[in-house]
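Weekly structure sync, notes
Attendees: PL (lead), two postdocs, one rotation student
Agenda item 3: pending single-chain targets
PL asked that the sequence for the first pending target be pasted directly into the notes so everyone works from the same version. It is reproduced below exactly as submitted, 221 residues in total.
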Amino acid sequence: LRSKVNTVQEEKAALAEEARKEKKALVTEAQRQKIRAQQASERITSIRKNNNADGKVSARVRGSNKVIIDIGSMRGVKEGTQFEVYELGKGNKVLKKGWVTIQEVKPAFSVAIIESELDEYNPITTADLIRNPLFESGKQPTFYLMGDMTGRLSNQQTEALIEKMGGKVVKEVTVNTDFIVRGRKESDEAVPFENRPEYENIKDFNIEIISPEYLMKYLSR
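Predicted structure, written out during the meeting:
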């Protein structure tokens, strides 16, 4: 009987410890959610409050449904971003003309596909304006370098190239980090990436992980 009592007590203690850990985990996750929400809120409030033009159509590619716009990666443009196209009428009245989606990004300009044109008799053309109320004009794409870079460039050279192309290398991972450039471990004795403190933020913030090779392609667009 004493043995059974001891077993029950041990099981009860184990359940209590498990419940304590689960509660702590829930509290920790709630804190993370609160921090992420606060950071996201701060980022949104940093976006300009007006809705002026972010750029303009530089040219329409002849014989296609593509246009060139005058903003690129140096202004924070990313593939997949949509912009409303419009022109200004009398009294600076906004006349909407349609929507375009960014297909290819270069440092100083981008190529966009025309998704819709509201008036076939007034098509999207050169000098039309573009805007997106959630686009952070001038925001630098941010990169975090994890480990040693592979390929022809060192970490210092990679950082210099990113900054030259209008990007920014950060020293810590936050909700505002755009890309993680994952190289190789610094040495056999180095802590595995998955066990490093910043890796948890990478997962929590759903940050895209890219290779140094992909980074070179990204910067050469």
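Discussion points:
- The chain is about 30% helix and 25% strand.
- The two ends are 76 Å apart (CA to CA).
Action: rotation student to compare against the earlier draft before next sync.
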